[in-house]
Design goal:
By secondary structure, the chain is mainly beta. The chain is about 0% helix and about 50% strand. The protein is built from no helices and 11 strands. Strands 2, 4, 5, 6, 9, 10 and 11 form a 7-stranded mixed β-sheet that branches. A hairpin with a 6-residue loop joins β4 and β5.
Length: about 120
């Protein structure tokens, strides 16, 4: 049974940093496409960063140069390190996974975590 559990969210001031984690279980970690999405109140779910099974990473333009995706294959953990945080980064952050490369398409991801809240104050 595939499970994704996010952690590490919190409240920071603008300009600060935060590293959130997604612990995965129930599948071969490196064989799946994984991604971070976020959803702010009243808005749709937005793709933030994707890592293919090959290790290739893609970022949405608004976080390029500020966010870094990485994974610890030994621990089955996907990380999103966020720096130079802005109030507009405030959202619930969700981890998603799928056996196939799914890019930014939320409907293509089979598995989702419950999310971790990130709040950035000005």
């Amino acid at each position: 049974q595939v499970q994704l559990v996010e952690s590490g969210g919190g409240s920071v001031q603008a300009g600060g940093s935060l590293k959130i984690s997604c612990e995965a279980s129930g599948y071969t970690f490196t064989s799946y496409c994984m991604a971070w999405f976020r959803q702010a109140p009243g808005k749709g779910r937005e793709g933030v960063a994707v890592i293919a099974s090959t290790g290739r990473t893609t970022y949405v333009d608004s976080v390029k140069g500020r966010f870094t995706l990485s994974r610890d294959n030994a621990k089955n953990i996907l990380y999103l390190e966020m720096t130079s945080l802005k109030p507009e980064d405030t959202a619930m952050y969700y981890c998603a996974a799928d056996p196939w490369y799914s890019g930014w398409a939320t409907s293509f991801y089979t598995y989702w975590g419950r999310g971790t809240q990130v709040t950035v104050s000005s």
